[in-house]
Amino acid sequence: MTITITAFERSPDRGKGLARDMRVRWALEEAGQPYGVRLLSFKALKEPAHLALQPFGQIPTYEEGDLALFGSGAIVLHIAERHGGLLPEDANARARAIAWMFAALNTVEPPIFDRALARILERDEPWYEQRLRVLEDSIRKRLGALSSRLGDADWLDGAFSAGDLLMVTVLLRLKGSALLDEFPTLSAYVARGEARPAYKRAFDAQLAVFTAASPG
Q: What 3-state class would DSSP assign to 61?
């Protein structure tokens, strides 16, 4: 059965690998699974056909036979459980890898994503500077704890796993920022993720969509 995912027709990240279909593309590349992509306009996201798959009108979605999933974390977990290469065989190590998946999306990502939104939507508001300080203090606490836990290891818990995949995609939103640069261990961790051949294939595939959609 052919796997089909959805992605932005014109991604707001301008091909930087930040849109959440990148997570799914990367997981499929790590698992060695071919897939097709259905590109959607922002208008199509709110139409009944897509809302039947994703009730919140977002991307990505995942379709395989009679299975339809939404939510990048849920999709990556499904891929990791169905195919090899993203979760350890040992039951305890597998459980820890899944815990890191949840930590990436529930603990580390929220203040990072809120900061990105605030920098776009709230710059002209009187509370902007205070809001940014609060968010960045929260991010530093998360990054400090994560850096301490990672230490001098290559990955979070032994071999590369779906936990690392999601954590790297979360941290990529800080790439090139002073915040991430404060934690060289994490900068190097992100670079290791980006160096993986599966990541490069996924990134190139997502970038090709933006390039094709760009005028000229």
A: strand
Number of domains in the chain: 2
Residue pair 60/72 in contact by the 8 Å Cβ criterion: yes
Asked if residue 49 and residue 81 are part of one domain, the reply reads: yes
Q: Give the 3-state secondary structure of residue 29.
A: helix
What global pTM score does this model have?
0.95
* pLDDT tens track for 71-114: 999 999 999 999 989 999 999 999 999 999 999 999 999 999 99
- How big is the CA angle at 118 (ends 175 and 77), to the nearest 5 degrees? 55
Confidence of residue 216 (pLDDT cuts 50, 70, 90): low
Please report, as a single letter, which amino acid is at residue 73. Answer: G
List the structure tokens of 138. Answer: 């929260």
Mutual orientation of helices 72-82 and 91-103 as an angle, nearest 10°?
A: 160
- Amino acid found at 48: P
